[in-house]
Design a protein that fits this description.
single chain
Length: 176
């Protein structure tokens, strides 16, 4: 599957993406607010194997796509949407971008595309996302794509031995 935006191609990952994925997944600054990483080469290979496995599930409930810049062909990150409840038509989304590609609007563009896909193609009613309270840029992306702040989740994740809070955001489909 592929989603196309004005500047980006969101596509399935391939085995040849290992080096590009590892370049951002091993970066401590990129993974600072994540509950994973920095990755070892083995961690990155396991991630790509899991993504391939998710892709083959029937029915499919998880979509993790490579974020590729049209103009250069560079893989610059990943975007994820997962259906968390089929009965309640609920899902969660997240994204990560390589540091050299921050502050260019790519996260906003990719997140808006996956949000539309979740509502229009998957048929979700509500899509949520969380970010670390210190990750102001990520909170701003979620607001820009129309997600609304829903609350502060205290000590929500244990990350590298430290309890971290999360800000919760959500968007509702106007048609489902």
């Amino acid at each position: 599957m592929e989603l196309v935006t004005s500047r980006l191609l969101l596509r399935e990952f391939s085995e040849s993406d290992l080096d590009a994925v590892h370049a951002y997944a091993a970066d401590p600054e990129v993974t600072r607010f994540m509950d994973w990483g920095p990755n070892s080469p083995e961690d990155t290979a396991a991630f790509l194997a899991e993504v391939r496995q998710d892709r083959q599930a029937a029915p499919r409930s998880a979509y993790t796509l490579a974020v590729v810049v049209h103009a250069t062909g560079d893989l610059v990150g990943a975007i994820h949407l997962e259906e968390t409840s089929r009965a309640h038509r609920r899902g969660e989304m997240g994204y990560v971008l390589a540091q050299p590609h921050w502050r260019r609007g790519y996260a906003t563009e990719a997140a808006a595309a996956i949000l539309r896909f979740g509502f229009d193609e998957v048929g979700l009613r509500k899509i949520t996302a969380t970010c670390d309270p210190d990750n102001v840029a990520s909170a701003r992306v979620l607001e820009k794509i129309g997600m609304q702040y829903e609350g502060h989740l205290r000590q929500h994740l244990l990350i590298r031995g430290q309890w971290r809070d999360r800000l919760a955001f959500a968007a509702l489909s106007s048609t489902h």
